[in-house]
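[step 3/7] fold_predict: job queued, chain A
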Amino acid sequence: MAGGLVGLLDDVAALAKLAAASVDDVAAAAAKASAKAAGVVIDDTAVTPAYVQGLAAERELPIIARIAKGSIKNKVVFILPAAMLLSEFVPVLVEIILMVGGAYLCFEGAEKIHHRFFSPAPHAVLPAVAIDVDHEEKTVKSAIRTDFILSGEIMVIALKEVIDEGFVARAIILAVVAVLITAIVYGVVALIVKMDDVGLRLASSGRPPAVRVGRALVAGMPKLLAVLSGVGTAAMVWVGGHILVAGAHELGWHGPHDLIHWLEEPAHDVAGVGGVLGWLVNTAASAAVGLVVGFTLVAVVPKLTSKMTKSAAAH
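[step 4/7] structure written:
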């Protein structure tokens, strides 16, 4: 009896270790998959605060909470099941969809660069100010629609990283990624949009140290948003280019991947910093691919859109 009990306890201990290892594996895979989506995450974080500009301070956090709930619904209810079905039955289509998303990232990044440096009169386009319930509803729906595109990119990028996992593990990892990234993005957005309110309170406190901190926060918010936007644009071009190069390699066109690998090799041989230099060379090359593809699409897409519009109007 005692021997049986000891054996049972050993079995329970072994199962517990296996479960703990599985949790660690899922956490590690989710972290890796989330990191691969960093470019889109940064862009999402940079874009969302615009939707609460012009709103009363007391409505900012409730609206961000509503957008965050919509983002979770986008990822878990709509995108996750579709991604799981595709990865299970048509995995090659995941690669193609991922490359389409990579091309879109390149296009969006290049378009932002084009507007920043080449537009004759660049201006920020802000959403409608939510002055009543209807306008607020429109603002939230617009933000959730934009989030759907970004969430789709995030989930497909994450899916590609764990596509070799089992069906259940893959689903759990993607669900963890969905919740984790949404919490990070909208948590940071909430901090950003309330930064000026905190700064104003500190600035009006009358205490010299607090006043200085408050003024710095108020003055720093536009700069922080500008930095986030710049980093997000750079990340989109780099991540988009990397996705295209890796996808082409997976689908049988090895030229771009082999060229970048050839460029990396001398950097890896530098003692002490070879790994960092190799990563920088890979990143720069991927960004160059992203810029070429992105600016090509910037030149072509408006013309195609114009032709399609004229054709539709003619009929």
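[step 5/7] annotate
The first helix runs from residue 2 to 36.
The mean pLDDT is 79.
exit 0
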